[in-house]
Design brief:
Shape: elongated
Number of helices: 1
Helix content: 10-25%
CATH class: Mainly Beta
Number of domains: 1
Distance between the termini: 48 Å
CATH architecture: Beta Barrel
Strand content: over 45%
Length: 179
């Protein structure tokens, strides 16, 4: 009887240990997903603030858990800038910090590539440098294990659309799904 109790106790401890190990490895895994939403961009031209029409974006991401409560995310996003007749591809890299199980803050850098067939902006000037750089800051909230909402502020540093346009900024509200 003693042996049966000891054997049962050892089995329960080993099962408990395996389940804790599984939770730790689940937290360290790499996840893939899709995201889509709305972009709202604005800029300053000759001292006046101009609001661009709201447009849509979509893309793919990969996210890797790091040590502690940190995560690293890389994305490839596509959006269309209607007022300038451009397609924009974005490559943001984000570092996330988990505040709670459902809520995260994020910050990062991004590279953007502007493209249209003639490579002209809305002023009919040739774009000399279609690549620009920026930074972003945002929050993310998990609706469930798979679905999440995100809100992000972006700021682009490089002037490549028009030499007089300064401070290209934007807000992005999106929803994502993790596979």
């Amino acid at each position: 009887m003693k042996r049966l109790i000891i054997a049962s106790f050892l089995v329960l401890i080993s099962i408990s240990g395996f389940s804790q190990e599984k939770k730790l490895t689940q937290k360290k895994k790499t996840t893939f997903g899709i995201t889509a939403g709305l972009n709202s961009n604005f800029h300053t031209l000759n001292g006046y603030r101009n609001q661009e029409p709201t447009n849509l974006y979509g893309g793919l991401f990969v996210e890797r858990s790091l040590k502690g409560k940190f995560r690293l995310q890389a994305e490839i996003l596509y959006s269309r800038i209607q007022s300038e007749n451009f397609n924009m591809f974005e490559l943001p890299i984000s570092l996330k910090y988990e505040i709670t199980d459902r809520f995260r803050v994020l910050t990062g850098v991004q590279v953007n590539y502007l493209y249209n067939r003639r490579n002209l902006n809305f002023f009919d000037r040739k774009i000399e440098n279609p690549i620009n750089f920026g930074a972003h800051l945002g929050v993310e909230y998990d609706l469930s294990e798979k679905w999440f909402l995100s809100l992000r502020y972006t700021h682009r540093f490089t002037k490549n659309v028009h030499p007089d346009i300064n401070n290209i900024k934007g807000f992005r509200l999106g929803i994502g799904f993790r596979f």
